Amino acid sequence: MTLNRHLTGWLMALPLTAVLAVFLVLPIIMIVVVSFWGATEWSIYPAFQFDNYEFLLTSNVTYRVYFNTLKYAVITWAFTLIIGFTVAYFLAFHVRTLTWQIALFLLCTIPFWTSNIIRMISWIPFLGRNGLANSALMSWGVIDEPLDWLLFSDFSVILAFVHLYTLFMVVPIFNTMMRIDKSLIEAASDAGASAWQTLWHVIVPLTKPGIMIGTIFVVTLVMGDFITVRFMSGSQKANVGRLISNDIALLQYPSASATAVILLITVLMVIGLMLRFVDIRKEL
Amino acid sequence: MTTISKVRYSRRSLLKTGGAALAAAALPAPMVWGQETKNITLRQFGTGVSNLNEVANKVKEDLGFNLEMTALDSDSVTQRAATQPDSFDIADIEYWICKKVWPTGNLQAMDTSKIANYDKIVGIFRSGKLTPESVIAQGTAPHSVGFTDGPGGRSFADNESGWMTLIPTIYNADTLGIRPDLIGRPIRNWSELLNPEFKGKASILDISSIGIMDMAMVVESMGEYTYPDKGNMTKEEIDMTIGIFTEAKRAGQFRAFWKSFDESVNLMASGEVVIQSMWSPAITAVRSRGIPCVYQPLEEGYRSWGGGIGLSASLSGMELDAAYEYINWYLSGWVGGFLMRQGYYSAVPETSKNFMSENEWGYWFEGKPATDVITNPFGDPLAQAGEVRDGGSFYDRMGAVACWNAVMDENQYMVRKWNEFVAA
Question: Which pLDDT tens digit goes with each residue over B362-416?
Fold first, then answer.
């Protein structure tokens, strides 16, 4: 009987295991293997050499690019967290009826009806030298010369990231906030806590799992991105994703694989670190 | 149409026609299929410049078979030609791409005796010389990678061997594009690209094999260095060239880099950029929006490029015959005229003349003042009566080519350095 139950358990886990093995584990193994291969201009050949890693790890451009990638991730995270938390807080605690909560929540998702790339590219004419933002600011007399740093700069890259990924913060935080027992807040208020004290000592600790899930979403999305950085910086800035995409475009698959392996390790380390702070499983 | 009816069986036609074809193959009787060409579809891919739906429509009209077009950027084209040989029948690629892709064996050599207008193809693609007196420019000149030894050849032949790697279709002399209204003074040299006057308003294209040649033109023009051969730099020369541009990039010289044709048009038309590397039809695209834009001839000469059609190695039988039919049609003038009216040149200019008005031929090819409004093939006006093409006649422009887009011996090193430049 127990054996049978074990068997059923294994069988039930089998489909997912198989899918993950074929579509996740196998490709990653392949990438690791290829990262040791060599490349000519038009082909790759099996080998076991450390050239790709050597070139990658000894170039100071690599470190600059990694720094840039982390910088984008941290700044984007900070902004999406502040905006996401505020929006979720408003929805969860200030909107009284469930109907309105759902309606307003759906409103947040409307921009997602169009593609990621279109939402991003639509910033370009807005922020350009002769774009809407600059001409508006000039007609108000705020500035005399158009601001060049609005477009094709770190500013525009981060703006696009925040715009694209804030919802990934809103959803999990809103979700955990909705599950907070309202009587806890009443209790805090009865015990004489101010609104800020309630927020900091009751709500924030209880929303930690949601914040962490949102953080993982945002950080992995930003660290793996290449297209936003390419378009919003006019190819002037780089992150690790762009290094990989450039390598692929130039048929340097082994070098791209090596970069991907290092990126994967970095992202896993970052997530591992974050999970040390909050045990998501326990909190859920 | 004659060649197609000599029925030979390719794997694909067998699959299509199934048992009937099998039976027919077993019985060596002469066969004529009336509707056969209608079922043929050739899949062509290439850069946006010549992958135009108008061409596909005209093929259907004139030759009866279908041509599927896919337009990609230069890097994707190289990637696809090198790694997915079964995904295309016809590769419309540039000669420098050919230098990379040909050794993979994904393309097959073409028999020049089957090309009706072969003798009329411009000298650049055969002997390498535009006129008998011409000096061959530096870089990957088309004739140097245009021929191979025989049907199975994997290397390049240094003479007109009768087997071509690519059939030349389109080419041009490139230079910098400028916004004269925003610059307000004459531009004469490549070095202006790095002039601090245009800080934050310059752009260069992010395609390494082309960009490095633009860089080399700039470096020579600045008087920093004279290359023994721009088209085949040493590692030190690559470091030096990219170093100069990395410094300029960090100083904020560039507004953006562009990779596709449309990006270059938008950068220029929006005024984000006032001077940049550019392609001829991008200039006409900016102009047709009513924005002044000049393809500025420069004292140091042009950076030139050429494209051609290559056939997939897996193409055989009726499809192969159709492909030859297509190539002969391509060189017979209609496409040439269509392309020349956008500012490119055709490999067989004299056949294109029949498909252009005297005014158009005079303006685009002979460098004469227009006698009437010049429009592009889509009807947008590009020049008024009395205007002259930037750079003048065909022989003035193609005769002033200083280098060709190139793939160097140190290409892999260059590519890595280029990647660093983009990331710097």
Answer: 999 999 999 999 988 888 888 889 989 988 999 999 999 999 998 888 888 888 8
Q: What are the beta bridge partners of residue A125?
A: none
Burial of residue A138, with CB atoms counted within 10 A of its CB: 0-12 exposed, 13-18 middle, 19 or more buried: middle
- In terms of DSSP H, where are the helices of A59-141? 60-89, 98-109, 116-121, 123-127, 132-139
Residue of A nearest to B418 (CA): A246
Angle between helices B317-330 and B11-26 (to 10 degrees): 120
Among the partner-chain residues A125, A236, A247, the one whose CB lies closest to the CB of B419 is A247
The predicted-structure confidence for B306-361, as pLDDT tens digits, reads as follows: 999 999 999 988 889 999 999 999 999 999 999 898 889 999 999 999 999 999 99
Q: Which of B82, B259, B271 sits opposite A130 (nearest CB)?
A: B271
Chain A partners within 8 Å of B103 (Cβ): 42
Same domain for B240 and B126, yes or no, is: no
Closest chain B residue to the Cα of A240, Cα to Cα: B423
Domain containing residue B407: CATH number: 3.40.190.10
Written as six digits, the tokens of B62 are 């004139």
A residues 248-267 near B, CB within 8 Å? Answer: 248-252, 255
Which residues of chain A make contact with B407, given a CB cutoff of 8 A?
41
The reply to whether B317 falls in a domain is: yes
- Using an 8 Å CB-CB cutoff, list chain A residues near B418: 250
Cα–Cα distance for residue pair A72/A64, rounded to 1 Å? 12
Its domain, for residue B415, covers 173-301+400-423
Q: Is A50 on the interface with B (CB under 8 A)?
A: no
A56 and B CB contact within 8 Å: no
Distance (Å) from the C-alpha of residue A231 to the closest C-alpha of chain B?
Answer: 9
Q: Is A179 on the interface with B (CB under 8 A)?
A: no
- At B152, give phi and psi (nearest 5°): -100, 10
Contact call for residues A222 and A76 (beta carbons, < 8 A): yes
Q: Which domains does chain A have, with CATH numbers?
A: 35-283 (1.10.3720.10)
Closest Cβ–Cβ partner in B254, B255, B422 for A238: B422
* Pick from A95, A79, A91: nearest CA to A172: A91
| Residue-by-residue DSSP string for A27-81 | HHHHHHHHTTSEE-SS-EE-----HHHHHHHH-HHHHHHHHHHHHHHHHHHHHHH
- The answer on B207 and B75 residing in a single domain is no
Q: How far apart are CA A99 and CA B424, in angstroms?
A: 51
The answer to whether ipTM exceeds 0.85 is: no
Nearest Cα to Cα of residue A133 among A115, A156, A154, A165: A156
User: Is the CB of residue A64 less than 8 Å away from at least one CB of chain B?
Assistant: yes
- Distances, alpha carbon B1 to alpha carbons B5, B64, B328, in Å: 7, 10, 11
